[in-house]
Design brief:
Elements (H helix, E strand, L loop, with lengths): L20 H11 L5 H11 L7 E5 L7 H4 L5 E6 L2 H14 L4 E5 L13 E7 L7 H14 E12 L8 H30 L5 H10 L2 E8 L4 E8 L1
Bound molecules: S-adenosylmethionine.
């Protein structure tokens, strides 16, 4: 089996500890304070033109709030996440909902091994890529470009900074306050951890990474508090 060189990044989950079963168990309840997984998924189906024949991959799928909804609209969802604990929650929900057209892989963006003959039609990654430092984001995006069929699409949604560098302090404080207002203390605290220990980056860096790894950015939307949506085509 091929092993990675000594300099290769060892994927971990910096910041919020998604390997902690307690965090995994309460994830849906916490995120549903400010998100609606069903609406997010229906939006993705529409903007990504997902069809019943499509194989969709969700990278950093977590507890499957989006992945399990997408499964209703396509042939198969490949669910990849580094946290076995988050996937356990996803698998239990799938069992209860009788959703069988999913495959789960406990692997990271970098360690996931794809069978290259079975390229996928769509890749979705929601609030997960910021767990990698910027250089390793580029390695992960390169892998996504290889997994996607030519002309097909990547949906990337993440916390990405759109403020001017000079304004970082006031923008980050606003971001934490906005989260406090909609989702309360625990999510405001997670936002602080996010800024301190995770690897969110600027939009102009993310756009360079996307373009240099073989994607054309078809659209960019800035949602509230630096949540950014990119829809990209593989060139
Ligand atoms: C904020 S959650 C997002 C989950 C889901 N995509 C959603 O929209 O609710 C971040 C997820 O990224 C996963 N993650 C963190 N680092 C990762 C890595 N290197 N490779 C794959 N998944 C990773 C975590 O385990 C966690 O499930």
């Amino acid at each position: 089996m091929k092993t990675n060189p000594n300099w290769y990044y060892e994927e971990k989950t910096p910041g919020v500890d998604y390997l902690n079963p307690k965090i995994a168990q309460k994830y849906d309840a916490e995120h549903q304070k400010f998100r609606n997984f069903k609406e997010e998924s229906e939006h993705i189906v529409q903007v990504m033109e997902i069809t019943p024949e499509d194989t969709v991959m969700d990278f950093g799928c977590g507890t499957g709030g989006v992945a399990l909804n997408l499964a209703k609209y396509c042939d198969k969802v490949i669910c990849v996440d580094i946290s076995r604990e988050m996937l356990d929650v996803l698998e239990n929900k799938a069992k209860k909902l009788n959703i069988n057209n999913i495959e789960t892989y406990s692997a990271g963006f970098l360690t996931y091994n794809h069978n290259w003959q079975d390229k996928v039609n769509k890749i979705v990654s929601m609030v997960a890529l910021h767990h990698l430092p910027d250089f390793w984001k580029s390695v992960a995006l390169l892998k996504m470009a290889e997994i996607l069929k030519p002309g097909e699409k990547l949906y990337l949604f993440d916390i990405i900074f759109t403020f001017n560098i000079q304004d970082h302090q006031k923008s980050i404080e606003k971001m934490i306050k906005d989260m406090q207002d909609v989702a309360g203390d625990s999510m405001a605290h997670e936002t602080e951890i996010h800024i301190k220990d995770e690897f969110s980056t600027y939009d102009w860096i993310m756009e360079g990474l996307l373009e240099k790894t073989g994607f054309l950015i078809d659209s960019k939307k800035i949602k509230s508090s630096n949540f950014v949506e990119y829809i990209c085509s593989k060139l």
